[in-house]
Fold these 4 entries.
Entry 1:
Amino acid sequence: MTLSLISESNHLADYLAPSAVIDWQHSSISTLGKSLTQGISSVPDQIRVLYEWVRDRISHTCDIGDPRVTCTASEVLHQGHGFCFAKAHLLAALLRSCGIPTGFCYQRLVFDDAQPDRFTLHGLNAVYLVELRRWVRLDARGNKPGVQAEFCWHREQLAFPIRPRCGEVDYPNLYVEPHPNIITALQTYSTAQALIAHLPATL
C-alpha cells in the first residue's frame, strides 16, 4: 500500500526553490539536467532519466569505501558519490532544475540485522506527477544484490521496504528542504567512518 504523504507546504513552487544545499542553479547541475533531458518531452520520462542517472552513476559512499562526506548537490556531483541523503540532494537539484517539484522523505531502518536494536535514518525523494495529481516516492540510494529500487508510476519500488515488526518506520512527512538533523550530521562529521558512527536514528 502506498504511503499517504503529508506535504510541508501546499505550494508546489516551494518544492522547486534553490537553497544552499539544493544548489540547482550551480552551472554544473543546471547544465547536466538540460543535457540529460534534451529532446525528452514527457515529464515522467525526464524523471526516469534523471533518477536512473543519479542512482547508477553516483556511487553510494559506503559501497565504494570513500572516506569523504558530501552534502550539497554540487559537491555530490563533483565528488561522484554520497550517502543516501546526499544522493537525494543531488537528485532533487537535478529535478528542480528541470522544473519538476521534488521533496524529501525519510525512513527509520534497522542499521544492521546483526544489531537489531540500532536504527538509522534513510533518505529518499518524492516527485509530484501532474498526470496522477499526487506525489510518488523514489529512492536513488543505488542498487546492489538484495537492493533493487526503480521509478514506477503505479507502485513504489524502494530500496528498503520497511519491516514494522522490526520497529522500522515510513515517515509520512514530505519536506521542502532536507531535515536539519541530516544537514547537521553531514556537515559535522568530516569522514564517512565518523558519520556512520553518528548517523541520526530519528527525525
Entry 2:
Amino acid sequence: MIFVRFFAGLVCTVIATSFAHAGPIEDCSQENDLRLSVRACSKVIESNLLLEKLEMTYYFRGNAHRRLGNTRRALKDLQRSLEINPFYKHPYIELGIISKNRKDYQLALEHYNRALEIDPRFAKAYYNRGSVFFGMNKYTQSIADYDRATELEPNYVFPYIGRAFSLLEMGDNKAALASAEHALRLAPRNAHAAEIRAHILDEAKHN
C-alpha cells in the first residue's frame, strides 16, 4: 500500500492540558524533551506531589516511554493509569497506538471503542480508529471516522490528511486532492499534507 508508512509515523499523540504548577509537575507534562518528562514524572510519583492526579502522571510518563520506543514501560504506566481511573480516556489512545503498531488491529479498535464509550465526542479517538480501518483496507469506514473527527473539531488537520489517503486508495483523486488542500490551508507547513498533494498532482500529469 502506497502510504502505509504515513500512518506508521503519524500518530495522534494526545497530550492533556499541562499541570498548572511549576517544577517537576510541569516538566512531567511537557513533550519537547521526552527523557526530561520521564524523569520529572518519576519524581512526581516518588514524591507523592500530586496524588489527586496520579492517573495523569502515569499517563504522561507512559506517553513519553511510548514515544521513546520503550513499549514495555509504556504499557505498564498506561495500565497503571487506568487501574487508578478506568474512565480516564487518554491512555486508551496510547494503548491503541501500541496495538496498531504491532498490527493487532482488533485490539487497537477495542481501545478506541472504549475511549469513545467514555467520551462519544472524542475527536482524536475517531481519527485514530480511522487510521486502524485504513490499515485494515477498510477505507469507507476510515473515511466515516475521519469525517466524524472533523465534524467535532473542524480545525483538526490530521483527519483531513487521513481522508485524503483513504480517498486516494479508493481512486477518488479529485476528492483526495480537495482534502489534502484543505489540510494545507489549516497547516501550510504540514509535510504529510504537502506530500500527498504533490503525489496526486504528479499522478494527474501522467493520466
Entry 3:
Amino acid sequence: MKTVYVYILMLCFVCTLAAQEKQLPPEGGEPRAFTLPEKQVVQLDNGLELVMVPYGAIPKATISIQVKTGNINEGKDQVWLCDLLADLMEQGSRSMDAKVLSDTMAAMGGNLNISVSPHVTSLNTSVLSEFTTSAIEVMAEVLRYPKWPETELDRLKNDMKRNLAISLSRPSAQANAAFFDKLYKDHPYGNFYPTDTMIASYDLQDITAFYNDNFGAKRTVIYVVGKFDPAKVEEEVRADFESWQAGPEVNYPIAEPQTQHLVQIIDRPNAPQSTIIYGLPTIDPSNDDYLALDITNSLLGGSFGSRITSNIREDKGYTYSPHSSLTSNYKSGVWYESADVTSEFTGASLQEIKKEIIRLQDSVPSTEELDGIKNYEAGVFVLQNSSPGGIIGQLSFLDLHGLPESWLVNKVDNIMAITPEQISEMTKKYIRPKDMTLIIVGDKEKVKMQVQETFANDVIID
C-alpha cells in the first residue's frame, strides 16, 4: 500500500507540472472565404419581399417572417408594448387557440416562436421540408389574423412584471439601463425597461393600435432557407399575403447619441463586486471603418485572448469575465467594456482598462498578435453562418444597415487585409477615454474614493 501511495503522489506531481506548462495550440489553417448561397428574391405588389435560399442536405426548412418594427417604434410610455403584443400573438389566431397552434406546429416537426428586438418582430420556425408550405400558411394566419384573447392579457402582464422584477434585481441590468439611458436619453434605444405602472396600463386597445400602426406588407420580409420547393413556396406566399394591406413604410427614428464624460455610481450596499460599464457612442456597420474597429474591439477586449481580459482576469485576478462589445444600432453604434470586479479593486480595474486603451493608441500591435485575432474572427464568422439560421441573420443584418452582399462575401478578405497601424488608428479615433461614460453598480462607500482617485477630473453623479 505504501508503494502504491508513493506512486500516486509522484503521478500527481508530474501531472501538476505538466498542467503548469501552458502549451501553444497547433497553428490553424488559412481562413476560408464566406460563400453566400444563391438566393431567389420575389417582390409582391403590396411591398412584401420573399427571399428563398436553397441550402444544405438536411430535409428541413427554416422560415423567418420578419416585420420591420419593434421596440424602436414604441413611445416613451410604451416600453415593452411590442413584446406584450408578441406574447399575445402566440396565443393563437382566428381559427386556432394556443394549444391547437402548438400541436399543429409540433406535428410538422417544429414550433412557432415570436420574438421582438429593437428593429424587428419575427415569427420563426424550422420544420420538416414536406411541411414548408403548411407552416407558412399557419404563420401567415397568426400574423394577419391574431386572436388577441383578452382573457390572457392579465396573465401575460403579470408574467412580464415578474420578469421585469427579476431583471432589475441584477446589477448588470441596472448598469445597462443607466448606461444606455445616458447615451440615448431621448430615443427608444435608451428605454431598456418599463415600470410596473406602465405594464399595468396596457390594454387590448394599445396592442391593436400598435399593430395597426406598424404592421403591414411593406415592412415584411419572409426568409426561407433549407430544403424546399421554391415554386410551391412562392405560390403559398402569394396565396397567403397578396391580399394583406401594404401598411406603413419602414420608420426607424435615427438616434443622436450623447457623448458624456461622467461617472455614475448606483449604490448596492455590501456588494462584494462592482459591475462596471465604460464606453461611448461610435459608428455603425455602414461606416467604412466599421470592420477595422470590430477587429480592434476583439483585440482590445472582445475575445477571450484580448488584452484587457489577459490583464484584469489572467494577470491581476480582479474579475472572471470581462468583455468589450461593439453594439450596432441603426445609423449609430456603441463601444463599451463591461465587467464584474472585486469591490476593493474597482479603481485598479478601471486604471488597467484605461491603460490598455492608451497603450493600443500609442503603439501598434505585433503582426503575430493581430494575425491570431484576425484568424479567430474570420473563422467564427464563417462558422456562425454555416446554418440556415446564420444565413438568415446575415441577410437581415445587411437589410437593416443597407449593405450590399459584397460586404458579406468579401468580409474574410477584408479582415485579413487589416494592418496593425489601422488598429492603433481605430483606437485613437473611436475609443477615447476622455469621452466615455462610466456606470458602476456597487457599494458606494467602498468604491467612491477609488473612483475619485482614478477619475480625478470627472463629473461624478449619484
Entry 4:
Amino acid sequence: MNFRKLYVTAAFAFAAVNPAMAQDIKLGILLGFTGPGESLAPNMALSSELAWREASESGKLLDGATIVPVRGDDTCSDASTAAAAAERLVNSEGVAAIVGPQCSGITVSITRAITGPVGVVMISPDATSPAITELDDNDYTFRTVPSDARQGVVLAELAIERGIDAVAVTYVNDDYGKGLSSSFEDAFEELGGTVLLNAAHEDGRGDYSAEVGALSATGADVLVVFGRFDQGGRGIIQSSLDTGAFDRFILGDGMISDQLIKNIGSGLEGAFGTQPGSSSEAAEKFVQLAAEAGFDGDGGFRAESYDAAAVIALAIQAAGSADRAGIRDNLRVVANAPGEKIYPGEIGKALAILHDGGEIDYQGATGVEFDKNGEVPGAYRIEEVKNGKFEVIEVR
C-alpha cells in the first residue's frame, strides 16, 4: 500500500470539509534590504513572492489557502539587528518558514540562536559559506545555492586552465570571504598553483591603497577578489587600476554585476569569474516569468530565491498543513526523485499532483536536489567581461 499517497489524500479530504484550513499562511522573507547586500535583496524578494503568488493564485494550495509574504531585514552584517528581525518573523508574525537569510554569517547566527532551537525552516538562496554545511540545525536550515567549497574548486581549475600559476587573493573579512578564499587556496595549490598572499579587507573603507600595496608587493600579476561589487571589492579593484598594481582579475560570485563594470569602466575587460546559475531552458523560463511580472530575473540569486520559495509552498502541500516540522520533513519529498519533474511556472500543476496523492521531483530553475545536509550540488556560470559586459562563457 502507498501510505504516503493515502496520507496526503486523507489530509486533503479533511481540508475539504474544514474550510477553516483554507486560510492565510504567513511565510517570511529575511534578506539584506539594507547593508552590503541591499542592491541584490529587492529582486530576490520579488522572485520569492512570484513563486508564492503562483501557488496562491492556482487555488490548489491546501484547497484555497493564500500565502502572505512578510519581509524582514537581516542587514547582511549586523547580527543583533538580524536577530531582532528573525525574532519578529518567528514569534510575532508566526511565519511557517523563511526564505533567507541572505548572507552566510547571519545564517549561522540565526540558525544557532533562533530557528534551529525553535524549529523553523530557513532556505537561504545566497549564503554560500562551507561553515553552514555542518551546522547543528536540527535539519531546519537548507539552501538552494551551492557551497563555496565547490566554487573555490571551479575558480581554481579555471585559473590553471588559463595558464595562471601564481596569484594574490583578497577577501571580505566575513564568513563568506573566509570560506571562499580558503576553498580556492586549497584547490589552487593542490592543482600546482601558488597563492602568494591571502589577505582580508574590510567593507566600508574610503581608501584601499594599503591593502593593494601589500598584495602588489608579492609580485603577483593576477589578483583574485572575493568581495562585494558595491563595497570593498570594488574599492580594491579601483585602487589597483589607479595605481597600476593589477590589471588582471579573477572574481568570486559577489563581484559579478554589470554595475561593477559601470563603476570601474574598461579596466575590467578580460576579468572572469563564477556565479551560481545555469543557462538551461528552465533558467530562461524563470527569467521570462520574472519579466512578465515586471522585474529582472537575470541576476544574482534570483532563480535560487524563486526555487527556495517554491519548495516551501510544495512542502506545505505535501504535509497537508503549514506545520513547521511538517514543512521540514517534506522538503526532500517534493524536491528529490522520484516523481514528475516540475519547472518554473508549473507550481499549480505540482500542487494538483500532490493534492491527488502523486509524487513530484521539483527541479525548478536551478536543479534543486537536497542532500542529507539540506544542500544542493548546483551549477556555476563562467562569466567574462567582454566588450563592457559580463558574458556567460560556459556552465559547470
